[in-house]
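Hi there,

I know you've been waiting on this one. I reran it after we fixed the sequence typo, so this is the corrected version. Both the input and the resulting structure follow.
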Amino acid sequence: MLELNFHPFPILETERLKLRSISNDDAKALFTLRNDVYVMRYLDRPLHRSVDDTVEMIQKIRDGVENNTAIAWAIALKDELDFIGTISFHRIEKENHRAEIGYMLHPDHWRKGIISEAMKKVLEYGFTAMKLHSIEANVNPDNTASSNLLKKHGFVREAYFKENYFFQDKILDTEIYSLITPYP
C-alpha cells in the first residue's frame, strides 16, 4: 500500500509555471472558474453559487492534503503568481497505487500549452515521488480537448461507459483514460 506524505507541501516548478498550494486567497479566482457555465460545461458538477461554496471546496482540498488522501496545486505563471487554474490527484487508491488526475484552467490561458506543461511535471511527481503505478482520467466524451491532451501525454482510452452518470436530469456517457508508469 502507498504511504503518502504531502508535508511539506510539494511546490513544483516548470519553465513558465509555479504549482503551489491552494489557499483562501485563491477563492475569488477559483470561484470565477467554478461559476462559469462555459468553463464547467464538461465537468458535470454543479456551479458554485457563491465564494462560500468555493471556500468550502478549498477546505476539502486542504483536508485532503492534510490527511494525505488527495493533493491539488494552484497553477500560477512564475512572473505573476496569480491563480489561473488547478491540477490535482484525487480519488487516490493507495491499495492499488492509482489516482485520478483532474485539471482546469482560466480560458484566457487556453491553447498556450499551460496544462500540458503542468501535467508533465505533475505526472512525473505522481510516478516518482508518490510511487503511483497508474493514473486515470475521467472525461466527458464531448471534451475532445481534454482527450487529446491526455493522448499527447501517453494516456490510452481504457473504457467508454454508456449512460453511466446522472447529472442535471440527463444520463451521460463517460470515457476513462489511463497511463501506466513509464518509470521502471
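Quick highlight: The beta strands are 12-13, 17-21, 71-77, 83-93, 98-105, 134-139, 156-167, 170-180.

Best,
R. S.
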